[in-house]
Amino acid sequence: MKKLRTIWIQGIVFSLFPALCAWLGQSDVLGQLQEKQYIGAEIPVALVKECFALLGVILTFLLLTCPLIVAQLNERKYHLQRDRLIKNNKEILLKVLSNILHRERCDIDIRIFVPQNDIIHRVVRKIDKKQPLYFVIKNLEGLAEPGLTSDLKFEVYPGQQGLVGRCYQRHEILYDDDLERSNETEYNLNTYQINKTSDLRFILVCPILGFDGSIKAIVAFDSKTKMKVTEDNKKNLTNAVLNYTQELYELVPEFFK
Description:
The protein is an alpha+beta fold. It has helices at 2-26, 29-35, 45-101, 119-127, 162-170, 179-182, 191-196, 234-251; strands at residues 109-115, 133-138, 153-157, 174-176, 202-209, 215-223.
């Protein structure tokens, strides 16, 4: 609380000083004070006003612009560190999955699906609760290569499209290791969605649940390479994916908004 109060005080002071100097440099208040003899006649008011104006510019740069530049540089550094950590965590997961599936390497993209939440859809669904709810794809650097999947979305309620829609309605981890056969026939996909997912051979989806039990997002693990899930590896596979998904959600919750 004390730190928050200090930030507020610094913000007000750092904004007030440059503004006050700029005002003194532009207004005629110094001349009026001199006319009323609050300021000696020998003081060069015009020069003092110019000094205040210059000081306002300097203070604005030092107190406002410089901290902003430093904050942006620090934010960029944070994002670079975060992206490197996310990439490393994904590589660790892929090694774990490779061991579970007995493969030399698993080439998997991790995609996040979140509710379509632009203002138009929010207003429409506010007016009519029966309007379809869509989950839209987010291909994030370090997690997935967009490939054909850019701009992909699935209806999750009241209808269900794709394994994403089925996951939303069942609230559980689901997978399909035979997409080449099932993708066009079993998931109520339209032609656009089929074309966008035609090169996928494997997918596993994992829901992100809120405290109220509602689904906040769905994480999809897909591959263009065929992978076989068996009763022997299913439990270890789903546990690894669930742990990774929860850690990702806690590490970078902004990805799921």
